[in-house]
Input
Amino acid sequence: MKFKYSARTKEGEMQTGFVDAGNQKAAANILTGHDLYVLSLEGAEKVGLFEIASKFFNRVKTTDLMIFTGQFATLLGSEVPLGDAIRNLNKQTRNVILKEVTGEIAADINAGLSLSQALERHSAVFSEFYISMIRSAEITGRLESAMSFLADYLEKEVSWRAKIRNAMIYPVFIIALFFIVAIMLVTVVFPKLSVVFEETNAKMPLITKILLGSGDFIINWWWLIILITIFLISLITGYLKTPEGKNVKSELIMKTPIFGNLFKKIYVARFADSLSILIRGGIPVAQSIEITGHTIDNIIYRDILHEVSEKIKAGETLSVLLSANEYYFPAMVGQMVAVGEATGRLEEILTKISVFYTREVDNTLNNLAELIQPVLITVIGIFIGLLFAAVLLPIYNLMQGFKN
Output
């Protein structure tokens, strides 16, 4: 359970925050153990509908975390003490959840925890990669540099997501508009034409019969279609959250035309970028690879990198293991890593790989709309042709009947 407390330090300074404990007595013991004199202690669990809705709409997005990290790096660069920096960030943030989290982090730091330990208590907001970066920076004394890197890393992620989202707006709009027009045709226009075709005994092709039947079904059973759609969406969403579903989703992403190659480049760029900075931060290669696997939002890459990490512990080399997975890591990556291993410049080579694939991703994203457009025009053209055929073929057959 989570408890909100108000307490004073030995120096008399007022302190408020949150503490996790099994019950109120345990929470009081934790605070007392940190040399705090407890003034008030109450449960902070929120279960109301408003609070649930508020947390959903105010969840910490990547953009919020990017702004937070960038501001944090700026404050540290200005030599603002860590505790003061966190308190300043707490005052500036407008996100409800992040504001609560930064308040707890400030309280934990005042209680003697390190920044990485405080962040680790909020793993739902800060990823394993984020926390590992901070932990290694605390050891090497390069916290400001780590924060700056994380800010740039998150900015790049936000930029990529925005470009993909913007590129998809036009295709989604066109497809949605097409389906709206198609539904209007089969439910409003076609039924009126069917009366004419039936009265004149015009021969109707299969496509026309299918569309007429679809229109009748939609008119009579629209409520059932809605229920089935909701059920299928819930079923698919639930399945995709299972280990098997995540694996299927990851595989489908990799095999999707256009997007498959794009995401491969994104994953390789993330891999090289994350691994280079973790190794530079003094984290062992095997552990760095394991952590990197969790920064790539694809379960297949995560499993591959977990296996690679285990084999490196057994004495195998990274370049050989990457070359053995050439479908997921292009041959160039394995070759460049081999050069890095041979020359002792692995971090430098990984940075070059990251820069190369980041440039490739940016170029692809900038031209994504142009890449999608031919496919979209072809698919929509086929469906429009079928709609026109469903209308014009019976009319043609009717005219032929009049001629005869």
About this structure: Residues 259-366 form a domain with the Receptor-associated Protein fold (CATH 1.20.81.30).
